[in-house]
Design a protein that fits this description.
The chain has 154 residues and is α+β, with helices and mostly antiparallel strands. The chain is built from two helices and ten strands; from the N terminus they run αβαβββββββββ. The chain has a domain of 100 residues. An eight-stranded antiparallel β-barrel has the order 1-2-3-4-7-8-9-10. A two-stranded antiparallel ribbon has the order 5-6.
């Protein structure tokens, strides 16, 4: 391997690694208590959650419920994609010959998702949400095994 090739590879890695690190991303999710003991004790409470890998279709979720401790779990979203294969012949000056390839695109629309987490005291939180294609924002509802109901916004 020549020194020039080695420098080229280092330059490519130097450009790709920061982009890969940003691709995952973390986002905040808010849980607003609507019903149950938490809403009754403090109707203004906003529970902050952190969702990891929001550039993908699933990731980790962490938050704290009052008097229940830290809750850890997963979020997941179903993002439909279309796949098209290209085959053919091109007779232009730039592309002489055939063209073979594959294109993958996200379908515009609303995607469904779910959250599931278990808290330190054994409380389970489960919910559903909808999110727009290509965005990291959405809305939904969740409930826990203690009878609390939450509005999800992110």
């Amino acid at each position: 391997m020549t020194a020039e090739m080695s420098r080229s590879r280092l330059l490519v890695l130097g450009l790709i690694l920061p982009l890969a690190a940003c691709a995952g991303g973390n986002s905040r999710m808010q849980l607003y208590p609507l019903q149950g003991e938490i809403a009754d004790s403090d109707p203004t409470l906003v529970i902050q959650a952190t969702a990891t890998n929001t550039g993908g279709t699933s990731g980790n979720l962490t938050f704290r419920l009052p008097e229940r401790g830290k809750c850890s779990g997963t979020w997941s979203s179903l993002t439909p994609r279309t796949v098209s294969n290209k085959k053919g012949m091109s007779l232009t000056w730039k592309k002489t010959g055939g063209e073979v390839g594959r294109e993958i695109a996200t379908v515009a629309g609303v995607n469904n998702g779910e959250i599931y987490a278990v808290c330190a005291d054994g409380t389970r939180v489960q919910g559903t949400f909808v999110v727009g294609s290509g965005t990291a924002s959405g809305t939904g509802q969740a409930s826990d095994t203690n009878g609390n109901v939450y509005k999800l916004l992110f």
